[in-house]
Automatic annotation (TrEMBL):
Keyword Transferase belongs to the record: yes
Residue ranges of domain DAHP synthetase I/KDSA in the record: 12-259
Name assigned to this protein: 3-deoxy-D-arabinoheptulosonate-7-phosphate synthase
Keyword Transferase included in the entry's annotation: yes
GO biological process, one term: aromatic amino acid family biosynthetic process
Molecular function, one GO term: aldehyde-lyase activity
Domain of life: Bacteria
Keywords: Transferase
């Protein structure tokens, strides 16, 4: 299989405009759950950059559990985020939910994200195999490692070699946390596959106070990067994810601490 270590013994290192993801590099992606306004994403981009992050995250299309929840600002959000990224010298990552929107998302963002709910949306994965932008594939919250790697295989088999795997927490019997961040996934996936492994301690815990320790634990476990939610006004964010979003000063302090564990490059 294309995703396997047997097929490709060396770590895959994805180079996006000079930012290297994979191997010994640690990449930090930060930003709001959802793009809300040009001012919001511009200010958060500035803070991500100042803290030392390399990638701005933000959803323009949001996969909400209920149909009456805020669904994202759509294509306008892609434009707002692209401008903020360019202005502050950050790469951008955004979620794409349907094959029809892959091309427009690829036009505006540097990395396309597949959410946990779409890990086995095979039409979407097949379409992502045909583009020349890297894809961050999130693990389905009930997916085994084998199912996860098979989902990545769909993208690779289509001809797109630039796939990163993202552990974002799985469903367990525990209700204190939103999900259970499966730290073992990091070394296991790295042993089975050559693809970079990114950890998402925000969705992985659903609790702001756990983001710092689980970020550090993820880096200690060998993660190639982190994707972290950060918001200037989490209590008034437009998705429910304010409770797991770091305040800007927490984000900056975390990155300072992480520099001591592994150089952020
Ligand atoms: C997100 O990144 O905001 C998101 C919806 O993530 P997940 O698909 O992991 O729930
Ligand atoms: Mn979110």
């Amino acid at each position: 299989k294309l995703a396997s270590r047997e097929f490709h013994p060396e770590d895959t290192v994805i180079d996006i405009k000079g930012v290297k993801i994979g191997g010994d590099n640690l990449v930090i992606m930060g930003g709001p759950c959802a793009v809300e306004s040009p001012e919001q994403i511009d200010e958060i981009a500035r803070l991500v950059k100042n803290a030392g992050g390399q990638v701005l995250r933000g959803g323009a299309f949001k996969p909400r559990t209920g149909p009456y929840s805020f669904q994202g600002v759509g294509v306008e959000g892609l434009i707002m985020m692209a401008e903020a990224g360019k202005k502050h010298g950050l790469l951008t990552i955004t979620e794409v939910m349907t094959p029809e929107y892959v091309d427009v998302c690829a036009e505006y963002a540097d990395i396309l994200q597949v959410g946990t709910r779409n890990m086995q949306n095979f039409d979407l994965l097949r379409k992502l195999g045909t583009i020349n932008k890297p894809v961050l594939l999130k693990r389905g919250f009930s997916a085994t490692y084998d199912e996860f790697l098979n989902a990545a295989e769909y993208i690779l088999a289509g001809g797109n070699p630039n796939v990163m795997l993202c552990e974002r927490g799985i469903r367990t019997f525990e209700t204190y946390t939103r999900n259970t961040l499966d730290l073992s996934a990091i070394p296991v996936l790295q042993s089975l596959s050559h693809l970079p492994v990114i950890s998402d301690p925000s969705h992985g815990t659903g609790r702001r106070e756990l983001v710092e320790p689980m970020s550090k634990a993820s880096v200690a476990a060998g993660a190639n990067g982190l994707i972290i939610e950060m918001h200037t006004d989490p209590d008034n964010s437009m998705t429910g994810d304010g409770v797991q979003s770091l305040f800007p000063d927490q984000f900056a302090n975390l990155l300072k601490d992480l520099e001591k564990l592994a150089p952020i490059v």
